[in-house]
Write a structure and sequence with these properties.
mainly alpha; 0% strand; globular
Length: 148
């Protein structure tokens, strides 16, 4: 499963965006080094700024590549790419704690600086849940044959 590949990538030291996008790279003609470079700044909510989650961003990019490689009949069956991306975001909003990295990490506005730092340092398990949900959507929507 792609979620297992992406989580193994994350455990190897890649950021969340690199991990997700790299899991979908081979069948989409993307080279490993290109993916690592392209997704490097997305990790940690865009350069560790805690904005939109890198895994969510990478999933949207992967979604675009997967969709572009489908035949016309499959594209018609799945509807437009914009509708598909909206479905992707809506699905994730229901399954993870938020689309922003600070939400995934469980950070709160009223947290002390020390509490924020502790939560940020301990975010990896929550990041893995997010990575997994991103990959599960792709596998569910496109089937394993189109994502392997």
């Amino acid at each position: 499963m792609k979620s297992e590949i992406a989580i193994a990538n994350f455990d190897s030291g890649l950021n969340c965006a690199q991990s997700v996008l790299l899991a979908f790279a081979p069948e989409n003609g993307l080279k490993e080094e290109t993916v690592k470079i392209a997704a490097a700044a997305l990790g940690g909510g865009i350069s560790n700024r805690k904005y939109i989650c890198g895994a969510v961003n990478a999933g949207a990019i992967a979604l675009s590549f997967i969709y572009s490689n489908l035949d016309e009949a499959a594209k018609t069956e799945l509807d437009s790419l914009n509708n598909l991306k909206n479905e992707y975001i809506t699905n994730l909003e229901k399954r993870i704690s938020g689309l922003n990295c600070w939400q995934v990490a469980g950070l709160c506005e009223g947290d002390s600086e020390e509490e924020t730092e502790r939560k940020w340092e301990n975010r990896r398990s929550k990041c893995k849940e997010c990575i997994s949900e991103v990959c599960k959507f792709m596998e569910h929507k496109f089937g394993k044959t189109r994502t392997e």
